[in-house]
């Protein structure tokens, strides 16, 4: 088993973080957390972060796009949940908006319908206020906008009467 090193030179830490960023897009917060876990001093953290930015290892716009695409395509998250997670990671509102542009409206609607059909079938396909509430909560938790959810539920005959 490989033993974790306790101290790193500036050069070692820089090379490790380059590999860390090449493997997967990272945001500033993740890079800083990694450097803190390596017990680097604030001056070294700043210098390494600047190096990563200058050499395009660290790019928050690219990170936001990659994050939005991944969470949307793989986990079927809605725009609201993706946006909330990016805000928690300290991504700027400009980069969040840019990242969300990676999701096209037509496939977004298709995803919402697919999730609704799947969950509706899991609930037994019965039209009841309880199933309506469960479907609504599920889709809201996935990060879809309430107006879109209401529209889809009304297509299923699950609108409030």
β-strand number = 0
Radius of gyration: 21 Å
Mean pLDDT: 92
Oligomer: single chain
* Count of helical regions: 9
Distance between the termini: 63 Å
What labels describe this entry?
single chain, 161 residues, elongated
Element layout with pairings:
Blueprint: H1 10-23, H2 28-37, H3 42-54, H4 60-75, H5 79-88, H6 93-100, H7 105-122, H8 129-141, H9 146-155
Helix pairs in contact: 1-3, 4-5, 4-6, 5-6, 7-8, 7-9, 8-9
Structure description:
This protein is mainly α. Helices cover 70% and strands 0% of the residues. The chain is built from nine helices and no strands. α5 packs antiparallel against α6. The longest helix has 18 residues. The chain is elongated, with a radius of gyration of 21 Å. The termini are far apart.
What can be said about this structure in brief?
The protein has helices spanning 10-23, 28-37, 42-54, 60-75, 79-88, 93-100, 105-122, 129-141, 146-155. It has 161 residues and is an all-alpha fold.
């Amino acid at each position: 088993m490989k033993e974790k090193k306790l101290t790193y030179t500036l050069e070692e830490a820089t090379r490790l973080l380059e590999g860390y960023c090449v493997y997967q897009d990272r945001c500033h917060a993740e890079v800083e957390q990694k450097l803190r876990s390596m017990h680097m001093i604030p001056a070294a953290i700043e210098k390494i972060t600047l190096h990563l930015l200058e050499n395009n290892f660290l790019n928050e716009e690219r990170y936001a796009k990659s994050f939005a695409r991944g969470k949307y395509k793989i986990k079927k998250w809605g725009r609201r949940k993706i946006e909330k997670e990016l805000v928690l990671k300290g991504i700027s509102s400009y980069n969040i908006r840019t990242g969300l542009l990676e999701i096209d409206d037509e496939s977004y609607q298709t995803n919402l319908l697919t999730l609704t059909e799947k969950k509706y079938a899991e609930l037994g396909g019965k039209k009841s206020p309880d199933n309506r509430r469960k479907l609504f909560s599920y889709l809201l938790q996935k990060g879809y906008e309430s107006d879109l959810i209401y529209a889809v539920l009304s297509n299923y005959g699950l609108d409030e009467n």
